[in-house]
Specification:
The structure holds 2 protein chains of 2 kinds.
Chain A lengths: L11 H37 L3 H15 L3 H20 L7 H26 L3 H9 L4 H31 L11 H12 L2 H30 L2 H15 L2
Helix pairs in contact in A: 1-2, 1-4, 1-7, 2-4, 3-4, 4-6, 4-9, 5-6, 6-8, 6-9, 7-8
Chain B lengths: L2 H5 L4 H31 L4 H15 L3 H15 L6 H31 L2 H9 L4 H31 L11 H12 L2 H33 L1
Helix pairs in contact in B: 2-3, 2-5, 2-8, 3-5, 4-5, 5-7, 6-7, 7-9, 8-9
The chains are: A mainly alpha, B mainly alpha.
């Protein structure tokens, strides 16, 4: 480690370079969590459906995608994303690498979130559904007005925890050529030959964001989520938070 | 390229699968040992040890695995840490990185198991004259291991999936095999479908095993 290699981290040009990577990382994670939440809602209800022709494909999607590495999905969309959407958007369509990354991340996260949402819905007392049905609400109405608002509130801490996982996973999108934080770091260190300093710096940025988020999620969880729901959600997360 | 040419690439998949399994088993064993040690640090009666364990867990859980792998692969030669010859270097860096990362998760689970052991037993063992380490070995750890097997299985599944990151530092694992086949034959669908099926053939049986163990533990309790 050379002493002069640390000085670059106060250089505004270098900092701006890292800043643009950080912006890309944050925008990737936010896009991915929004998109994956929408997909997750569909599959969570699909899995809870009484009709087998809806239930079984949903189970296959959730369990299949959850069992795959995220990197595989990202690399696949990075290479084949454009060809995949050409039948829909016309022959000239090019999927940008950014959206290929978002798609890969969201697909994986949607399977995890679907399980978390399902755990939230299942852990609500049955009396809630029964009472709302007895009051004359249809199944869809009782879901929309009674069950879902409560289940979603239970899940806020879990979703925040999942956001930290997404932020960490955005580092993988750098491998298909999106210039997020890690990729910017690689550019810098191949210029200055200081991988130690650069990766420590990058790790520190990730640490500050993810630590703050996970601490906040833990704080919220304690006052927020009943024990039964917490145990169920924990179980889902265990398999995926490490990813 | 004819059909024979394409088939001649197929040997890459079993080779990659073998490397992936090797990497997963090595890092799983490593992270079980290291994770247990860190969990013991986290519940140790000495405060500095607890801080050390807590710091380790928080650091490795809140930074991306990819950054850790890149650090081990690109930065260790600059510090003068020798991980192996060029042909084994990538594998060792990947195994070390996966071990360090998953040890943090293993530590959290084992710590939960250690804290779940009835306090009266610990106090009884201590008052019968066992040393702290003797009590750990004879009373606290044996009861922990049984309870934590299903959650550790979940970490094992995550680990198998995470071995794919080794491809980014040039380890010829399953995903790497898929990349090579794709770049030689331009058949992304077939190449990545094969990779996906091979990953599923590892993770889905593991998932079924974990579910089975969870159910059995519930009955046993």
């Amino acid at each position: 480690m050379r002493p002069d290699t640390w000085r670059m981290f106060v250089d505004p040009t270098i900092l701006r370079f890292f800043g643009s990577g950080l912006m890309e990382t944050i925008s990737l994670s936010l896009a991915a969590i929004v998109l994956s939440f929408v997909i997750a809602l569909v599959f969570a209800f699909g899995r809870l459906s009484k009709r087998p022709w809806i239930r079984w494909p949903s189970i296959a999607y959730i369990e299949g995608i959850r069992a795959l590495p995220v990197l595989l999905l990202i690399v696949y969309f990075g290479i084949k994303g454009s060809a995949l959407f050409r039948p829909v958007f016309g022959p000239e369509f090019e999927l940008s690498r950014y959206w290929a990354g978002v798609l890969g991340l969201s697909l994986y996260t949607s399977a995890v979130l679907a399980e978390i949402i399902r755990a939230g819905i299942v852990s609500l007392p049955r009396g809630q559904t029964e009472a709302s049905r007895a009051l004359g609400l249809s199944h869809a109405q009782s879901m929309r007005h009674i069950i879902l608002p409560q289940a979603l509130r239970l899940m806020v801490p879990a979703m925040m925890a999942q956001l930290t996982t997404i932020i960490k996973d955005t580092s993988l999108v750098g491998t298909i050529g999106v210039f997020e934080l890690v990729r910017q770091g690689r550019v810098v260190y191949t210029q200055f030959f200081n991988p130690i300093e650069v990766f420590l710096f990058v790790a520190a940025i990730y640490f500050v964001i993810c630590f703050a988020l996970s601490q906040a999620s833990r704080r919220l969880e304690v006052g927020y989520t009943p024990k039964a729901a917490r145990a169920k959600i924990r179980e889902v997360q265990l398999r995926d938070q490490a990813a | 390229m004819g059909i024979i040419g394409e088939f001649s690439e197929l040997y890459l998949f079993p080779n990659g699968l073998f490397i992936t399994i090797q990497l997963a088993i090595t890092s799983l064993l490593g992270s079980l040992v290291l994770g247990t040690v860190i969990a013991l640090f986290r519940i140790a009666p000495l405060v500095p040890l607890r801080w050390l364990g807590g710091g380790y867990v928080e650091f490795f859980r809140n930074t991306p695995l990819l950054v850790q792998l890149f650090f081990l692969y690109f930065a260790t030669p600059y510090i003068g840490i020798y991980l192996g010859e060029p042909d084994t270097f990538g594998f060792r860096a990947a195994a070390l990185g996966l071990t360090l990362y998953h040890a943090a998760y293993v530590a959290e689970i084992v710590r939960g198991g250690l804290l779940a052991v009835d306090k009266g037993q610990i106090e009884a063992a201590r008052s019968l004259g066992l040393t702290y380490l003797g009590m750990l070995r004879e009373v606290q750890l044996p009861q922990t291991f049984r309870a934590v097997i299903p959650p550790l299985g979940n970490i094992g599944i995550a680990l198998v999936k995470n071995t794919s990151l080794a491809a980014t530092i040039g380890v010829a694992d399953l995903l790497f095999a898929g990349d090579i086949v794709e770049s030689r034959t331009f058949r992304a669908e077939e190449a990545y479908a094969a990779v996906a099926i091979l990953y599923l053939s590892l993770t889905i049986p593991l998932g079924i095993l974990v579910n089975y163990l969870e159910k059995r533990m519930l009955v046993a309790r």
